[in-house]
Design a protein that fits this description.
It is a single chain. This protein has about 110 residues and is an all-alpha fold. About 65% of the residues lie in helices and about 0% in strands.
């Protein structure tokens, strides 16, 4: 997924840019839902990093929590992100979040 610099944009422009980035990665998500997820994200004024990627995926999951089929797709990407960043200093914190999402997907807990 793209993470374009958007620190110079007005809020509506930034939200629309991020929503389009989300839709390009997950075309099954409506533009309205992508905009809701984009609204949860701050400005991007640095190079993409692990936290940015994780937070965007988490925000999308938060908005799409009523559609577990889509959440499962995004969750796989989130797990792949965790695996490829297993040396991150706060990885146990992010693993805990992923575990809670997994429990939600298996109907063992609420989101």
């Amino acid at each position: 997924m793209k993470y374009e610099y958007n620190g110079n944009l007005l809020e509506d422009e930034r939200i629309n840019l991020v929503a389009n980035e989300i839709i390009s990665a997950y075309p099954q998500i409506s533009f309205d839902n992508a905009k809701e997820a984009a609204m949860l994200e701050g400005k991007i004024s640095t190079d993409k990093n692990f936290e940015m990627e994780f937070n965007r995926l988490y925000n999308i999951i938060t908005i799409m929590k009523n559609d577990k089929n889509i959440v499962r797709i995004i969750y796989k990407d989130l797990v792949n992100l965790l695996v490829s960043n297993k040396e991150h200093e706060k990885i146990s914190y992010y693993y805990e979040i992923a575990l809670n999402i997994s429990n939600f997907l298996m109907d063992r807990g609420d989101f």
